[in-house]
Structures are given as C-alpha cells and as structure tokens.
Amino acid sequence: HIYKNILFIKEIVASVLADLAAINLAFLIYYFFKYKSGILDFSTILPVDVLLIPLIWINIFWLFLYAVAGLYDIPFEMKFKNHFFALIKTVIFGSIIFLAVNFKLGEGFLISLSSVMVYICLLLIMNLISRLFLFLYLNSKLKRTGKRMNCIMVTLNQGNDALSDFKPVKDNYNFIGYV
C-alpha cells in the first residue's frame, strides 16, 4: 500500500490540491452569495479576514475526513462513479458530524441550518467538478504514459467462474496469466 502511494504521489498531491481548491471556492461562492450578492439582507457583514481561521479549520476538517474515508486511495483506473459515490458518502457523513458538533441540547443548532446546507451543496458541486476534471486529466495521462494498465497475474481457487469477478475492472488491468 505504501509502495502504491509512493508510485502515485503526484496524483495524490493533485487530488489534495483539487480538494483544497474546491473547499475554498465553495466557501468564497457561499460568502459572496450570503454577504455580497444582495439576495439576502444581512446587516452585519463579516470581513473575509475574520473568517480566515474558521476557513483553515474547515480545510483541515474536510481534508482529514477525505483522507480517513480513503478518497485518496481510490485508483484513477477505477470508474468515476466509484469516486462520485465515495465523495457523496463522505460529504454526507462530514455534514452529519459538523451538525452534531454544532448542536446543544435545550438550545438547538448553534448555526443556521440553511447556511450549512447551502455551503454543503456548493462543496459537493465544486468537489465533484474538480474531481471529474482531475479524473479525466489523470486517466488520459496514465493511458498515454502506459502506467494505467497494471500487469497482474490472477490465482484462481474456484475455477473459471472466478473470472467473472474481474469483468468490472478488465479494461483497467493487463492480465498476463492465470494460475
């Protein structure tokens, strides 16, 4: 596992940078929508520099959660739907954690639920877009360089019927033999 991470360190760093960009872009769009657009009337407008420390914690929270959820371990040879569903599950789980931390018995939520939901939707959209572009770019790059097709040898214990287990990933690997 460590060896694979070292081999694909550039792709992992690109994923982290794409996630950082998506998290911060979602926050900036949320900030603009909430305070600068004029759609919502807020008498107290918080300057961006006041929100810098919370934004750093938001970045740490989401990057940590993505790493723990294994989003940086999903190989780019897999179909995008694997990345898509893993990201959706992680964002939903992270939202539940965030809401649970901001709930006090007897007082309710300490933050606006609508604001959190707007930010979560923006985060999900920005992350999916950035991951889609990164997926398309890295997948085509890995295909061009020939690194995409890993050679493997399969050990079969159940006879030829076990080959059906490999049909979903057959395009991603170069089977060199069976034992």
Structure description:
The chain has 179 residues and is mostly helical. 59% of the residues lie in helices and 8% in strands. It has helices spanning 2-7, 9-36, 52-68, 80-101, 113-145, and strands spanning 103-104, 108-109, 150-154, 173-178. Helix 4 (80-101) packs antiparallel against helix 5 (113-145).
Structural class of the secondary elements?
mainly alpha
End-to-end Cα distance:
23 Å
Shape: elongated
Strand order of the largest sheet: 1-2
**DSSP strand tally:** 4
Question: In percent, how much strand structure appears in the residues?
Answer: 5-15%
How helix-rich are the residues, as a percent range? 55-70%
List key phrases describing it.
179 residues, mainly alpha, two-stranded parallel ribbon, two-stranded antiparallel sheet
